[in-house]
Amino acid sequence: RRDHGKLIFIDLRDRSGIIQIVVKESQQLRLEDVIEVAGVVNKRPAKMVNKNLPTGEVEVAAKTINVLSKAETLPFDMGTEALSLELPTLLDWRSLTLRHLKIKGIFAVQAQIMENFRKLAKELGCTEIVVPTIVSGATEGGAELFAIDYYDKTAYLSQSPQLYKQMMVPIFERVWTIAKAYRAEPSVTTRHLTETTQMDCELGFVEFTELLDILEEMAIKMVKDIKADDKVAIGKIPRLTLKEAQRIINVQEDKDLSPQDEVDICSWAKGKHGSDFVTITHFPTLAKPFYTMPDPKNPQSSLSYDLLFRGVEILSGSQRINDYEKLVKNIKERGMNPDNFELYLQAFRYGMPPEGGFSFGLERLTMKLLNLANIREASLFPRDMERVDVRLSSHEKKNSKETGRH
Ligand code: AMO
Question: What is the pTM of this model?
Fold first, then answer.
């Protein structure tokens, strides 16, 4: 709302965008009031045209304004101030700050990423599946598992749709899902959430190199048509083994890349190949989950891959072990009990094609595409060690035990 003498100018927002409303008489209108307007669309005077607005050449002279819902006085100025708020405040007021056009814009981009993923997965011949998130155990490593009370037993929140998408390969051959994944991350970082969204594919009758071709093409097509301030550098995506990558950036061989290594190898890829993406393959077998296929040529390393984008891992995946005996042996060797994987193993006892797949992290991809500083900005309602909608102080934790509320 802008007051100019007897005239009030209002920016009216709806699903299609913004339009200026001109109100003559004095109106008791507050920011974020929900209104219904009837009026006449006029051409704006030449010097009042707003070139930054698709509707900037017109305005609505209001005849009647009907207030459908009144807003309280806002806790801060939603024009400019909302954007300079510290992240915790931005999140404390999330249902309000999401209304800011810049912040809303992040989630319009996120919706487009999901739309593109869906379209591309379907083009690959994948069938959409919906999988459970209440599960009986770990798939991606025990330490990061959330346990939940399940009647008088313990169940867990799923770390990944992994086992289910694999079990579905003999049925549909190719499947996709957008699924929630839960990780009890033990530390607070700018790129970890405790509840994240994964965009997964799993494909039968494909092997390592073909999987790499598929995921790289998909990654490029997913971001290509999205308007971001910083245009994505799309060249042929360089493929390096972990060892090659470590040699290039001059670090010691290790089982994984450190966050700084990821930044360094990405700037190498950008400089040398003009690509914001780089694929890293052949992680040590023991550093990857039990279902990962060891490289037959050198079983210490595995047919696994990560896709890095602008300095962060946004995808990982692998060719899988599809032989029942090998899988059981591998589960045992890692100190786990095959009995806990009964349903999963059933799928392998009765014929499982060579197969593999991958998973994109939606929030990470959104964050890097828009060059956001923190992954929390790329999640509508982010969960981390310190927040489930509201901040989890020790006092509130005590309350939750007593009342069942957070
Ligand atoms: P991984 O554990 O690497 O692989 O997860 C896949 C992708 O999901 C994203 N991601 C996260 N994003 C934010 N916060 C987190 N805590 C978090 N954890 C993971 C990352 C990551 O690349 N089942 C395998 C995938 C497969 O093999 O198909 C898996 O879950 O972008």
Answer: 0.94
Check if the beta carbon of residue 71 is closer than 8 Å to that of residue 32: yes
Tokens linked to 314: 């946004």
Q: Are 381 and 389 in contact, with CB atoms under 8 Å apart? A: yes
DSSP code of residue 284:
B
pLDDT at residue 403, as a whole number: 41
What's the farthest any 2 CA atoms get from each other in the chain?
82
pLDDT for 406: 34
Minimal CA–CA distance to 204: which of 241, 174, 168? 174
Residue 271, phi then psi, degrees to nearest 5: -65, -45
**Residues whose CB falls within 8 Å of the CB of residue 323, separated by 6 or more in sequence, listed in order:** 348
**178/200 Cα distance (integer angstroms):** 6
- Collapse the DSSP code of 80 into the 3-class scheme (helix H, G, I; strand E, B; otherwise coil) and give the result: coil
Which of 135, 364, 384 maximizes ligand 1 atoms within 8 Å of its Cβ, making it the mutation to test the pocket?
A: 364
By three-state DSSP, how is residue 281 classified? strand
Which residue, chain included where needed, has tokens 């999901």?
114
> C-alpha angle 6/10/11, rounded to 5°?
160
Q: Which residues of the chain have pLDDT under 50?
A: 395, 398-406
Axis crossing angle, helix 101-123 with helix 362-369, rounded to the nearest 10: 120
Q: Which residue in the block uniquely carries the two structure tokens 């209002």?
A: 10
Question: Which residue's CA is minimally distant from atom 30 of ligand 1?
Answer: 160
Question: Residue 368 is encoded by which pair of tokens?
Answer: 């890097």
Q: How would you classify residue 371: left for phi > 0, otherwise alpha for psi between -120 and 50, otherwise beta?
A: left
pLDDT at 401: 46
**How far apart are the C-alpha atoms of 89 and 86, rounded to whole Å?**
6
- C-alpha span between 233 and 270 (Å, rounded): 8
Closest atom of ligand 1 relative to the 198 alpha carbon: 8
The pocket around ligand 1, CB under 6 angstroms, is made up of: 140, 160, 162, 183, 185, 192-193, 196, 198, 200, 313-318, 357-359, 361, 363-364, 375
